[in-house]
Write a structure and sequence with these properties.
The complex is a heterodimer of chains A (173) and B (112). Chain A is mostly helical and 173 residues long. Helix content of chain A is 80%, strand content 0%. In chain A, helix 2 runs antiparallel to helix 5 and helix 5 packs antiparallel against helix 6. Chain A starts with a helix and ends with a helix. The relative contact order of chain A is 0.20. The model of chain A has no long low-confidence stretch (mean pLDDT 91). Chain B has 112 residues and is α/β, with parallel strands linked by helices. Chain B is 19% helix and 35% strand. Chain B has 1 helix and 8 strands. Chain B has a 4-stranded mixed sheet with strand order 2-1-4-6, with no helix packed on it. A 4-stranded mixed sheet of chain B has the order 3-8-7-5, with no helix packed on it. Classes of the chains: A mainly alpha (173), B alpha/beta (112).
């Protein structure tokens, strides 16, 4: 089982010290990219997985991350902020592509395990970035409020992903 | 004889009215549960039998209000900006969840 190391590394690039230097434009790019990565993985899993729980979870990832992205894009459009690509958003995008490439080689139980393992690791790292860098670094009050509002959804995703990951390991499926 | 009847009727009327006044028949109330930031607010709500609960989704993602015990109540998808109302007729302690986010929990306590 290979976790996408680069996505994790990319998120770890967002060190706590960087919170002061990050701009709202960079935060916007990180948020939109992070959501899109999970939408893409979810769309693949919804198609490929034959496990009902994994499929349902994947559908939820698609719906929720699209919802968050819509709100994020609406807000930055209203604020006239243009998302600015940066090292973190690029690392997220690269990591996402590597994860997809890996998943596309798999099927059945192996696919489910790899997908769910990545979802757990990914949501853990995204939450850490949200807590340590994005929320503290956001200058605009509405952007900060959106991040705060969305955080518990990511926590719920992580908790649900861990439940599924655990049940997959029990059934050996 | 007619006077006696009239008096009796009056006593019954007044007595009846008096009895009616002490019997408090509360009007059914609609309570609101706000769904926001992936949680139900309030998470725990006490209501009277006959009252309704209106779940309002102010979050940016869809949710449901689904009884933990199967078949009691299920809103189905409540989209952003939408709401769903249910009337609770029987007393009881009803746990519920969001079907999409199963760690999201609430309860309705229906108390006489």
């Amino acid at each position: 089982m290979k976790l996408s190391v680069s996505v994790l590394a990319g998120l770890l690039l967002v060190a706590p010290a960087a919170a002061q230097e990050i701009t709202d434009a960079q935060i916007a790019s990180i948020v939109v990219t992070a959501n899109q990565v999970d939408i893409d993985a979810g769309e693949l899993a919804a198609k490929v997985s034959t496990n009902a729980e994994v499929k349902k979870f994947a559908q939820r990832m698609i719906t929720d991350h699209k919802g968050v992205n819509k709100s994020a894009v609406d807000l930055v459009t209203k604020l006239k902020v243009t998302p600015e690509d940066n090292a973190t958003s690029k690392a997220l995008k690269d990591g996402g592509e590597k994860n997809l490439a890996n998943l596309k080689k798999l099927k059945g139980a192996e696919f489910d395990k790899a997908y769910m393992d990545h979802e757990v690791a990914y949501h853990t790292q995204v939450l850490e970035a949200v807590d340590k860098t994005l929320i503290p670094g956001a200058k605009n009050a509405d952007l900060k409020a959106l991040l705060v509002k969305v955080r518990p959804a990511f926590v719920a995703h992580l908790e649900h992903a861990k439940q599924i990951q655990s049940s997959l390991s029990k059934t050996g499926n | 004889m007619a006077r006696k009847l009239l008096l009796t009727a009056l006593v019954l009327l007044i007595g009846g009215a008096g009895a009616g006044a002490t019997q408090k028949k509360a009007k059914p109330v609609t309570h609101t549960v706000t769904i926001d930031a992936t949680s139900f607010e309030p998470a725990s709500l006490t209501i009277a039998p006959g009252d309704s609960v209106n779940w309002v989704n102010k979050d940016i993602i869809p949710h449901t209000a689904t009884s933990a015990k199967k078949g009691l109540f299920d809103s189905g998808t409540i989209a952003t900006g939408e709401s769903w109302k249910h009337t609770f007729k029987t007393a009881g302690d009803l746990a519920y969840i969001c079907q999409f986010h199963p760690t999201m929990k609430g309860s309705i306590k229906v108390k006489k």
